[in-house]
Structures are given as C-alpha cells and as structure tokens.
C-alpha cells in the first residue's frame, strides 16, 4: 500500500506545449501562491458540527476585492470559455483551504446572485501527475473534465456526487438503490482504474453520480483525486478492490455476481475504453509522445510495476519499460489488441 507521501513533479516544458496546443494552458488572473497570502482562518464544520479539515480563509480588506475579482475571472475562463460577461452577476461567498492531503487545495464557492445557485472550483499546485490523471480521465473515462493550467497553477472544476464513503449509509436507507447496479458499476470502475493506472481510489477519492432512469436508478462512479496517476510501484494500488475502505463494495460484488458475470462487465469496460482509444488516437498519440520520457515516478517504482504487470498479464514487454509512460502505453495497447480494435 501507499507508505510515503508522493513526490511533486512540476509540469515540464514539453507537457506545457501539449497543454497549450489543446487549450488547457491559458493565462490566469491569479496564481496558487496569490491565494496563500491570507491573514486568518476559520474552521469549516459539517452539518453535525464535525471538523471537515477545511478552513475558510480571510484576506486583508484591501486585497479581498482584487482576489475575488480574479477568482470570478478564473471561473469564467474555466466554465464559459473566457466570456467575462457571465461574472457580472456572480460573487465569491467563501474561499476554503484544505489542510489534509498532498495538494493543499483551495476550494472556491461562487454564487449566482439572481437565484442563489452556487458552484465550486479548485485552485491547486500544478503537479504533472495530477495533470496526466485529469487528461486521461477526460480521454478514457465516460466523463469530460474541465481544467486549466498556468505555470505552477492548476484550476479544476468541481466533480459533483456523493463521496463513496458517505454513499453506503444512504444506500442502506434507500431500497430503490438496487445493489446489483451499484456492484456492476464498481466492477467497471475497478477495471477502468487498473487499465489506465489511476491509483489510490479509496472510497473518499471517488463519488457516485446518481441518475433516475425510467424504471430504476443508474449509477456512475467518478474519480475526484488524480494525484496517484501511475506513480506507485505496486499494481494493487491501481485496483480499488484492494483498499479496505472499499470492502463493502467488494462484498456487494461477491454477493451478487459470479466469476463469469464479473468477467463480462470487465470486458464491456475494456471495449468502451478501446472505442475511446480509437476516437482520441491522435490526441493520445501526442500525449504518449510527451509522456514517453517524462519523469513522473522513481526508477524503483517503475521497475516494480513493470515486473508485477509482466507477471499479471504474462507479458514480458512490461519488464523492458523504462518509464511510466512506456508502461501505460503498453497497458492501453493491450486493450486494443484484446478487443480487436487495432
């Protein structure tokens, strides 16, 4: 399992050129560092009065207006292609800072003054691992992800949903939430995370997106934390089924599905990813060319993961990979071959 804090990898010039070409890299009115100059904080409590590990930050009066104006402009770039007219009726209700985890993000609550509808977005340090994770999520998952970078700053949209660790009590109180549908989605999410090497998908790092259908509820699990994109050496870090926090979901799968059904859903997910690989082949080729020689992990972890995947797939090519980029490239090529989408 994960035993040490992940190393920080800055966005390289080559990756920045890729981001600029695909309009992810844009000049932003504020940087992450600008938001760190707060003067005081207040704890943010949940509905039960428990500490959330987020703190509401306060800025000096002479700086607050400029910071809020910059945040509204940043939101317009993220959500409205830079149309500054949309920010005229918006206001920043609060800016929060997370004291837990690797990235220490800022979470911004922005409100429409006409109807009180609100949204969130995040400002983080521009770590290369996180950028690769967001990009692969956008290209290979069922979900589009909007984010922007500018030098050492990363801005992400909020991914709405019920956190996986909070979903279970809700599920138990809602008989219309069919456990077989939940279990099916967990199988697919587990397979998707493994194939694209997104790690640390413990229950609090993914959310459930719930959609009422004409005869039942549909569920989709969405990752919300991308720090552990192909960084760790153990292959089980990339398989959500092996985290103790996800044990209730694993038990749900075991209760309702036999091995043949699990394999069916895994194959369905591989086929969907293969179609996305074909549809996004030009952009993925550009991303591969950037990633091929990028340093986003340690030699020891690269060697360990290559050896474990070679044993898992009975594919010795993994042992010859010299970078995480080469490992993910091999992993995705296997999807194409296995599904006859070459």
* Strands, count: 10
Give the class from helix and strand content and strand pairing: alpha+beta
* Molecular shape: globular
- Compute the separation of the termini in Å: 34 Å
Order of helices and strands: HHEEHEEEHEEEHHEEHHHHH
**Order of strands side by side in the largest beta sheet?**
1-2-3-4-5-7-6
What count of helical segments does DSSP give?
11
Mean pLDDT: 92
Low-pLDDT runs:
none
Q: What is the helix content?
A: 40-55%
Major pleated sheet: 7 strands, antiparallel
Strand content: 15-25%
Question: What Rg is obtained from the alpha carbons, in whole angstroms?
Answer: 21 Å
Explain this structure.
There is one protein chain. The chain is α+β, with helices and mostly antiparallel strands and about 350 residues long. It is about 40% helix and about 20% strand. It has eleven helices and ten strands. The strands form two sheets. It has a seven-stranded antiparallel sheet. A hairpin with a 2-residue loop joins β6 and β7. α6 packs across α8 (about 260-280) and α8 crosses α11 (about 325-340). The radius of gyration is 21 Å and the shape is globular. It starts with 12 loop residues before the first helix and ends with a helix. The model has no long low-confidence stretch (mean pLDDT about 90).
């Amino acid at each position: 399992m994960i035993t040490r804090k992940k190393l920080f990898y800055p966005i390289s010039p080559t990756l920045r050129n890729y981001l600029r070409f695909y309009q992810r890299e844009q000049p932003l009115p504020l940087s992450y560092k600008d938001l760190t100059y707060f003067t005081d904080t207040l704890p943010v409590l949940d509905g039960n009065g428990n500490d959330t590990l987020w703190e509401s930050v306060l800025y000096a009066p002479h700086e607050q207006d400029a910071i809020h104006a910059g945040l509204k402009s940043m939101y317009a770039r993220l959500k409205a292609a830079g149309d500054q007219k949309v920010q005229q009726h918006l206001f920043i209700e609060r800016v929060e800072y997370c004291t837990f985890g690797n990235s220490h993000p800022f979470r911004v609550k922005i409100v429409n003054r006409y109807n009180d509808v609100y949204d969130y977005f995040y400002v983080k340090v521009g770590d290369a691992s996180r950028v690769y994770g967001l990009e692969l999520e956008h290209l290979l998952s069922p979900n589009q992800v909007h984010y922007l970078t500018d030098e050492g700053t990363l801005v992400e949209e909020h991914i709405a949903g019920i956190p996986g660790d909070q979903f279970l009590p809700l599920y138990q109180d809602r008989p219309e939430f069919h456990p077989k549908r939940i279990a099916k989605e967990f199988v697919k999410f587990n397979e998707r995370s493994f194939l694209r090497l997104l790690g640390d998908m413990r229950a609090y790092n993914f959310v459930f997106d719930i959609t009422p259908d004409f005869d039942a509820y549909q569920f989709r699990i969405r990752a919300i934390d991308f720090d552990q994109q192909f960084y760790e050496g153990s292959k089980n870090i990339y398989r959500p089924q092996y985290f103790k926090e996800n044990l209730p979901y694993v038990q749900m799968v075991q209760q309702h599905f036999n091995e043949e059904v699990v394999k069916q859903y895994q194959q369905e997910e591989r086929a969907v990813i293969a179609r996305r690989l074909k549809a996004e082949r030009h952009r993925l080729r550009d991303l591969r060319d950037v990633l091929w020689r990028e340093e986003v992990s340690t030699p020891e972890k690269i060697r360990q993961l290559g050896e474990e995947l070679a044993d898992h797939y009975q594919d010795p090519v993994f042992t010859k990979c010299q970078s995480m980029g080469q490992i993910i490239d091999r992993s995705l090529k296997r999807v194409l071959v296995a599904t006859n989408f070459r």
